[in-house]
Write a structure and sequence with these properties.
With 250 residues, the chain is α/β, with parallel strands linked by helices. The chain is 36% helix and 28% strand. The strands form three sheets. The chain has a six-stranded mixed beta sheet with strand order 2-1-3-8-7-6, sandwiched between helices. Helix 2 runs parallel beside helix 7, helix 3 crosses helix 4 and helix 8 runs antiparallel to helix 9.
């Protein structure tokens, strides 16, 4: 049985360092895989600079478009960490020291270590709900359907599990990947025909070049297990009829 309403999310990656190429974006993959596993479909990802106007406009546009928004980056102690203040302005909320966040950080650091820079990490919309951080102490926060997480991938990954009870998901998205020794042009038309007969299954084809050989990975995704399996059988029947080599099936 599937839910009638699809639950959707948007991801906003905030940071000049990502746009410049100095930092690789790992957070999109981490969030998308986790959200899919709890039945939330990521529909859009945007990468924007540390610019207040851009953050406010992007957050306000996407929070009306999707059920949930996740931002990463810009909630640290430095001058260019402006996400928390920008979120406050997007929601017209007071920006300042969050009492609970301040208390958590004050206890986290040794006496004399909780300096002005670190205190900045306790500044956010004063009425926000906190996202606890088991790795480095500094909490993230959320306001309504906008969840603000740090940009450091290992810290973000340690925090998302604690959000599960705050999110209402649909049916988990299940996937099957079949890796073939072929080229896209050889399978494009039959794959399109299979897709047209299986509207509840999303089919993607991804070419690769590995160990000096060309290949294509076919990924089937759906929240409906029986329809996914039916589509997979149709695909395998076609592959067998063409005598295409299957490298891997997972």
């Amino acid at each position: 049985m599937t839910n009638k309403k699809e639950i959707t999310a948007g991801i906003i990656i905030i940071g000049n360092e990502v746009l410049s190429g100095r930092t690789k974006d790992i957070n999109t993959s981490t969030l998308a895989i986790w959200l899919n596993s709890i039945g939330i479909n990521v529909r859009e990802v945007r990468v924007i600079p540390d610019v207040e106007k851009d953050i406010i406009e992007t957050v306000n546009a996407l929070r009306k478009k999707f059920d949930y928004i996740f931002t990463t980056g810009g909630i640290g102690p430095t001058h260019d960490d402006i996400t928390a203040e920008s979120i406050s302005k997007a929601f017209n909320l007071e920006y300042g020291f969050h009492k609970e966040a301040f208390s958590i950080l004050e206890k986290y650091y040794k006496p004399g270590e909780f300096n002005e820079g670190r205190q900045k990490m306790a500044k956010m919309p004063t009425t926000a709900n906190l996202i606890l951080n088991p790795t480095s102490g500094a909490p993230g926060f959320y306001v309504k359907n906008v969840f603000c997480l740090p940009g450091v991938p290992s810290i973000l990954q340690s925090m998302i599990g604690g959000l599960k009870n705050q999110l209402v998901g649909g049916d988990p998205i299940i996937s099957i990947t079949i890796t073939l020794r072929t080229v896209e042009s050889e399978i494009a038309k039959p794959i399109t025909e299979i897709q047209n007969k299986n509207n509840d299954v999303e089919i993607g084809s991804y070419p690769f070049f590995r160990a000096g050989k060309l290949g294509v990975s076919i990924v089937l995704r759906s929240s409906n297990k029986s329809k996914l399996e039916k589509c997979n059988l149709e695909l395998l029947k076609f592959i067998k009829s063409r005598e295409i080599e299957i490298v891997e099936e997972v």
